[in-house]
Amino acid sequence: MENKLILASSSPRRQALLRLAQLSYHIRIPDLDESIVTGNNPIEKVSELAKMKNKKISLDNEKEVILAADTVVSYNQTIFEKPSNKTEAKDMIRSLSGHTHHVYTGVYIRNSAHERAFVECTEVSFWELSDEEIDRYVTTKEPYDKAGGYGIQSLGAMFVKEMVGDYYNVVGLPISRVVRELRSFSIFPEFDSI
Ligand SMILES: Cc1cn([C@H]2C[C@H](O)[C@@H](COP(=O)(O)OP(=O)(O)OP(=O)(O)O)O2)c(=O)[nH]c1=O
């Protein structure tokens, strides 16, 4: 029996990125109140949450490999998670306007024998945005299921002036590094065997 990758996430983007890398996976969604992890250190926060999401899923046998992740936006000593309403979304995007922020994704991988954890950081600079632009954006569905209140993979792309680091890390999973780490768990993308 081959090793089996379990994605501990409800995020459609994380699923899409595993498919992009030609990885087969199963989904098990962790039930976790993310607000229990407090504090203003983004690296600690994403590490802790990725680990907690991962450990919420039990390993049924030694072939299973569980992957979990957490993404936050950090600007000026403040962590931005998913905005819960229009006002919060507007405030977040207004603070990011004309500035450079960091997007952190913590990844935690484990099987019955070992575990690997890492944090990837991408630097994103926004253009100066007008109030009208921000108002229009928050009337779309885009901000509400995304850290920082924007989606770089869709309309939020219009805000981005410059980026340093892995684009896919901003979307929720630094897929090229994940693929490399998964090889040590004997999980391989289909293209490895071509
Ligand atoms: C900044 C940014 C974040 N995001 C997303 C990635 C993450 O899915 C989300 C941050 O929330 P997370 O809590 O990391 O993930 P999630 O709630 O979507 O899924 P789960 O906890 O079940 O794994 O924000 C984008 O899709 N685009 C972006 O540009």
TrEMBL record:
Pfam families: Maf. SUPFAM superfamilies: ITPase-like. GO terms for molecular function: hydrolase activity. The active site is at D70. Keywords: Cytoplasm, Hydrolase, Nucleotide metabolism. The record marks R13, T71, Q153 as: Important for substrate specificity. Its EC number is 3.6.1.9. The keyword Cytoplasm applies. Its cofactor is a divalent metal cation. It is found in: Cytoplasm. It catalyses: dTTP + H2O = dTMP + diphosphate + H(+); UTP + H2O = UMP + diphosphate + H(+). Nucleoside triphosphate pyrophosphatase that hydrolyzes dTTP and UTP. May have a dual role in cell division arrest and in preventing the incorporation of modified nucleotides into cellular nucleic acids. Belongs to the Maf family. YhdE subfamily. NCBIfam families: maf. This is dTTP/UTP pyrophosphatase. It comes from Gracilibacillus marinus.
